[in-house]
């Protein structure tokens, strides 16, 4: 307690003593510091208080597991090498060595490739090597949780190659905003704690997706659907608005944008429920409860109002060019209505 930033170390060669200068890697720089304390684990028979597991020592010889404390250790890279330096020339030598090691480990290119996030330097190096052997290009390889920026990078890559616009996540968290963005943008995240499984799962998905590419691409497009707000089925007015709907044509899914008959975007279907159970989609003829964030019943939407799903212009263009055969005649009719409504507002819609 009260030690501030600490790091656990395996000392494999030489010795370390209080007052020594240590050189260790940070994500974008090198830390040069003197440990405030060196601590060794107490023998089990002395460890009566679980909060008091360590004893301070003046020096330690290899091989040993120890903990060091220093206010400068914030942001130290897990799995990186630590050097003990005695002279300014040794500090300069180890700083240069760490900088060159880091350059070879982290990848950040403008080329198409997968985005890889790992927990330590060691796992990053191992997976980068295995991906290279599998001839999988890498756009970015880094340490730390998967964040929204990673998803946005994968999204840009996916526009050129859907099999590379993915995230490989080894033993790290996925931040909530990244999870939401990945679901909204259909960016696949592969998560695993076993290196071989992570790479096998990715390679297997690429093979399956290639075999069924047309269906896989079509499944990610905004579905074409028309639905009606049922009179007398208001469950909650706002935040989120929850109300009953009937699917008149097509399939309605969660996370899908929709518009009114004037072509004004109303919001996004947040959740669908059938018999009080959440469902991912609802088909023609089904009556379900629908929740929508950011709208108020009686102000933005009204009972008996008719809504259409609202595919962005580029998706509608894609459906017209490649996927019309996958729509029923009723869905094709609704697609024509959506295009007509949108073109009255924006003549370039779906061109």
In brief, what are we looking at here?
The chain is α+β, with helices and mostly antiparallel strands. 29% of the residues lie in helices and 33% in strands.
How would you describe this structure in keywords?
351 residues, alpha+beta, Elongation Factor Tu (Ef-tu), domain 3, Rossmann fold, 6-stranded antiparallel β-barrel, 5-stranded mixed β-sheet, 8 helices
Order of helices and strands: EEEEEEEEEHEEHEHEHEHHEEEEEEEEHH
**What strand order characterises the main sheet?**
15-16-21-18-17-22
Assembly category: single chain
CATH class of the largest domain: Mainly Beta
CATH superfamily of the largest domain: Translation factors
Model regions low in confidence, pLDDT < 50 over at least 5 residues:
none
Radius of gyration: 28 Å
Straight-line distance between termini: 64 Å
Write the CATH fold name of the largest domain: Elongation Factor Tu (Ef-tu), domain 3
Class computed from helices, strands and strand pairing: alpha+beta
Helix content: 25-40%
Shape: elongated
Mean pLDDT level? 91
The total number of structural domains is: 3
| Strand content bin | 25-35%
Largest sheet report: 6 strands, antiparallel, barrel
Count of DSSP H/I helices: 8
- The counted number of beta strands is 22
């Amino acid at each position: 307690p009260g030690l501030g930033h600490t790091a656990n170390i395996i000392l494999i060669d030489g010795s370390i003593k209080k007052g020594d200068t240590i050189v260790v890697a940070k994500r974008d720089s090198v830390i040069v510091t003197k440990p405030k304390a060196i601590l060794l684990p107490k023998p089990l028979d002395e460890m009566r208080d679980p909060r008091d597991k360590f004893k301070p020592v003046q020096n330690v010889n290899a091989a040993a597991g120890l903990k060091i404390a220093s206010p400068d250790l914030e942001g130290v890279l897990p799995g990186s090498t630590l050097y003990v330096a005695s002279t300014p020339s040794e500090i300069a030598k180890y700083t240069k060595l760490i900088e060159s090691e880091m350059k070879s480990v982290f990848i950040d290119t403008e080329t198409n490739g997968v985005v890889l996030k790992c927990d330590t330097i060691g796992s990053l190096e191992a997976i980068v090597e295995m991906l290279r052997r599998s001839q999988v290009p890498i756009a970015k390889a880094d340490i730390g949780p998967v964040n929204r920026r990673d998803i946005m990078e994968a999204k840009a890559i996916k526009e050129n190659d859907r099999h590379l616009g993915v995230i490989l996540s080894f033993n790290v968290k996925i931040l909530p905003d990244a999870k939401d963005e990945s679901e909204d943008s259909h960016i696949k995240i592969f998560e695993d704690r076993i290196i071989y499984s992570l790479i096998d799962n990715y390679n297997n998905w690429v093979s399956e997706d290639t075999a069924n590419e047309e269906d896989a691409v079509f499944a990610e497009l905004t579905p074409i659907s028309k639905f009606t707000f049922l009179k007398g089925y208001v469950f909650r007015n706002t935040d989120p608005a929850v109300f009953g709907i009937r699917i008149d044509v097509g399939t309605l899914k969660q996370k899908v944008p929709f518009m009114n008959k004037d072509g004004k975007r109303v919001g996004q279907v947040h959740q669908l429920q059938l018999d009080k159970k959440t469902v991912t989609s609802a088909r023609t003829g089904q009556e379900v409860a629908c929740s929508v964030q950011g709208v108020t019943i009686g102000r933005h939407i009204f009972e008996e109002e008719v809504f259409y799903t609202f595919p962005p212009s580029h998706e509608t263009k894609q459906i017209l060019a490649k996927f019309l055969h996958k729509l029923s005649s009723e869905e094709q009719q609704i697609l024509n209505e959506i295009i007509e409504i949108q073109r009255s507002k924006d003549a370039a819609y779906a061109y």
